[in-house]
Amino acid sequence: MKKQQIEYPLGSRPNDGEVLEIAEGILWVRMPIPFKGLDFINLYLLEDEAGWTMVDSGFNSEKIKELWTEVFEKHLKGKPVTRLICTHFHPDHMGLAGWVTEKWNIPLTMTFGEWTFGRMLCLEAADEVPEEVMSFYHRIGFTPKMLEKVRKRGFGSFSKAVYPMPVGFDRIEDGDVLSIGGSDWEVIVGRGHCPEHACLYSAERNMLISGDQILPRITPHIGVYPAEPLANPLKKFLDSIPVLAKLPADILVLPAHNDVFTGIHNQLDYYKEHHEERLSRLKFACGSPKTAMDLLPVLFDRELNENDVSLCISEGLAHCHYLVETGELERQLGDDGVWRFQHVKVIESAVA
Ligand SMILES: [Zn+2]
User: Fold this and answer.
1) Which band of pLDDT confidence, cut at 50, 70 and 90, is reported for residue 2?
2) Is residue 309 a part of any domain in this protein?
3) Could you report the per-residue pLDDT of 319-341, keeping only the tens digit for each?
4) Who has greater pLDDT, 308 or 136?
5) Residue 36 clears pLDDT 80, i.e. is over it
6) Ligand 1: distance of its center to the CA of 334 in Å?
7) Centroid of ligand 1 to alpha carbon of 328 (angstroms)
């Protein structure tokens, strides 16, 4: 059977700060992201009887607040925003959550894992980078120059990228059903990109608001960070695939980056193939001990700039940890305080 291809049935996308109606009562809003890599984020507004449910808030910047203010004035048919759902804690999604909830006096709706993680990152900001964090970056092979940069950057860039979050939140969990605009939207939790990512699925509308769990054209970032240095997020991501693959083949996917698309099964298959291919490259390369830094050219075909290196090394580490958990690689801490990954040596038992 021929695989269903990725298609972009709307044929257009809104510009920054503009709105495109996807279907009755479902608006696609696009906002800029003020750093390199991802150019924009998609936010969604779902019309309800009494007001609008907003999905994700955008990055915390004056420019984006202005753009939102215009959207609120022009596109809400005089109704208020009554609920904000953030798919996950990343600053392009949750950056303005505090501002939106304050402005409309509404609750912030998130999963427990995402809300607590975001709130923790806001509260732990400090001038000095904890030694534990420095030694994590040393362990993964950062050069002295890179370590110096980490130290200079300080600890708390997250809190600067996020408007102060509300102290409390309204919890959603996997399987919860929200009624919005007369349709049921089920919360489907995906993992790997972040701890407890909420996707919203409506069988009736045949739509999935996928956040960053499923993106067209690119694979979601999956990385290991100092907050959980031994994490295995790639396993969590790959384990989420069969759950999402149960959704209908012709579902319209509303992602947080790039365009609204169909072809979910094709994209999920691509993720599996992509990561399997990267894992086999790693296995091949780790015949001799390698640091996470050594593995960058093995995993990434493109030239990496300084900003890419941090993200890519976290992603490479996620792949290494996956193979440590399957028992194929071992992680050894050298006398120099750096992790090295190598094939597990098969010890042949002596036969008497
Ligand atoms: Zn994200």
Assistant:
1) very low
2) no
3) 999 999 999 999 999 999 999 99
4) 136
5) no
6) 33
7) 29
For residue 305, being part of any structural domain is answered with no
| List of residues 6+ apart from 246 with CB closer than 8 A | none
Q: Distance, CA 56 to ligand 1 centroid (Å)?
A: 11
Q: What is the distance in A from the centroid of ligand 1 to the CA of 352? A: 56
Q: How many angstroms is it from 223 CA to the middle of ligand 1? A: 11
- Answer whether 195's CB lies under 8 Å from 287's CB: no
* 3-class secondary-structure state, position 4: coil
Residue 230 belongs to some domain of the structure: yes
In a domain, 332, yes or no: no
CATH assignment at residue 157: 3.60.15.10
Tell me the per-residue pLDDT of 212-271, one tens digit each, with 9 for 90 and over.
999 999 999 999 999 999 999 999 999 999 999 999 999 999 999 999 999 999 999 999
Scan for tokens 């257009």, then name that residue. 12
Domain extent at residue 209: 19-274
Look at the chain and report how many structural domains it folds into: 1
| pLDDT for position 346 | 59
SS3 sequence of 136-181: HHHHCCCCHHHHHHHHHHCECHHHHHCCCCCCCCEECCCCCEEEEC
Distance from Cα 90 to the centre of ligand 1, integer Å:
5
Cα 102 to ligand 1 centre (Å): 23
